[in-house]
Amino acid sequence: MPPGDRTFHAHPSPIRARSSRPIGRPGCHTGDVETPWSVAPPDPLGEALHHLRLVGTFYCRSELTAPWGLTLPPMPGHLWLHVVTAGGCRLETDGAEAVQLRAGDVALVPHGDGHRLRSAPGTIAPSVMDLPQTFTNDRYAQLRHGSGGAPTTLVCAAVQVDTPGARDLVELLPPLLHVGASPRTEWMRATLRLVAAEAEELRPGGEAVLTRLADVLVIQVVRSWLETDPAARTGWLGALADPRIGRAITLIHRDPAHPWTVASLAAEIPMSRSAFAARFTEMVGEPALAYLTRRRMHLALDRLRGGGGVAEVAGGLGYRSEAAFSRAFTRVIGTTPGAVRRGAPVPR
């Protein structure tokens, strides 16, 4: 990822309405009567965010007084989220220009890279791991640090990327995403006010609330990048925005168990079979049926982790043969369905 030019600054726009029914036309595989909902255009950004499944790992409320500095360690497989609820600071990370954060700003370091937060350039920044913290439990801490000057309050979270589909999306993100406070971000500021209120006084259930709010903020920041940054219009993300290939991807997502073929997907667009196959591979980076298989296996991973049986999951995703499903799952995920059911970690 080239340094310097991948930092993202955005002002997000309101949530778009999404269709909750399959896309189709008279006589298509869905069997539904044609309705305005069934022919609504797909929401490509919503389809991309459907991949983003996160698990809250660690949360910290920091009360800091200038001059102060913190070094956050690398955490592979995680995203670092920082919410400034009062004051301000400077965030520095490799591969991107430093940004100044102010009250109401949100920053995301999506690849778990080590980075620094400072009250001013050049301030000494010891590792946060070496500073005394008060642990409410093994997932929530409070930190007080600094030299008694101007105060800043932060809520920080290290959030684990939990599924292969989420990692596919996160890999495309720049090294730093920053959403600044403005009148246009009032819809996000409502979430920030809830974060600040919960972090101010950790009441019963407050940790669970913070966990979910942090997940919401991560999705909001990523959505802002998807909606506004031209860099998000490359690879399979760019394919989602294409009127034809994006429709094919949406059909796969909404009915992955259907016995799709290249010909049946092409007929839904409509395009010729050969033109569709070539365009899909060019835009997405893999053939349509390979994408379908990968999508099914990501869903299978979630269902197996949720306690589904191998035969049940296989049948629910359109496989008549448990053996064929197991071979596909092992090839795509890197371990067997049985191992996942036993709680084995999934290779990264």
From TrEMBL:
Pfam families in the cross-refs: Cupin_6, HTH_18
Matches recorded under SMART domains: HTH_ARAC
The UniProt record lists the keyword Transcription regulation: yes
Gene3D superfamilies: Homeodomain-like, Jelly Rolls
Domain HTH araC/xylS-type: 246-343
Transcription found in the keyword field: yes
Molecular function per GO: DNA-binding transcription factor activity; sequence-specific DNA binding
Region spans: Disordered: 1-35
The organism's place on the tree of life at top rank: Bacteria
Name of the protein described by the UniProt record: AraC family transcriptional regulator
Gene source species: Pseudonocardia petroleophila
